[in-house]
């Protein structure tokens, strides 16, 4: 919350990405869904674009391990960054 409020106060327009947890590593990966929803609200309140990767079915290759994006994950993030930059 503090970081988003700070960025907003400095007129920073950012794209916030919420990456998923790898369900092959974390058996309770769905636990981040409420956090992702709360982050969506905070982004909206602070005028930030938000890309939520936690929704939907997990596709192998999205994550390299428990925390690092894999090739498919980076392709999705890169596409979203391009879309965001074009809109600005």
Give a verbal description of the structure.
- The chain has 88 residues and is mostly helical.
- Helix content is 43%, strand content 9%.
- It is built from three helices and two strands.
- Helix 2 links the parallel strand 1 (15-18) and strand 2.
Shape: globular
**Helix-residue proportion:** 40-55%
Oligomer: single chain
Radius of gyration: 14 Å
Order of helices and strands: HEHEH
Question: Which properties best describe this structure?
Answer:
two-stranded parallel ribbon, 88 residues, mainly alpha, globular
Give me a quick take on this structure.
The chain is mainly alpha-helical and 88 residues long. 43% of the residues lie in helices and 9% in strands.
Question: Can you lay out the helices and strands and say which pair or pack?
Answer:
Elements: H1 2-9, E1 15-18, H2 33-45, E2 49-52, H3 71-87
């Amino acid at each position: 919350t503090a970081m988003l409020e700070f960025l907003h106060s400095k007129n920073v327009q950012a794209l916030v990405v919420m990456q998923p947890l790898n369900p092959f590593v974390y058996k309770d990966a769905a636990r981040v869904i409420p956090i992702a929803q709360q982050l969506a609200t905070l982004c909206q309140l602070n005028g930030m674009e938000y890309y939520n990767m936690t929704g939907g079915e997990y596709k192998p290759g999205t994550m390299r391990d428990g925390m690092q994006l894999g090739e498919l994950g980076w392709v999705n993030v890169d596409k979203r960054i391009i879309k965001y930059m074009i809109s600005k």
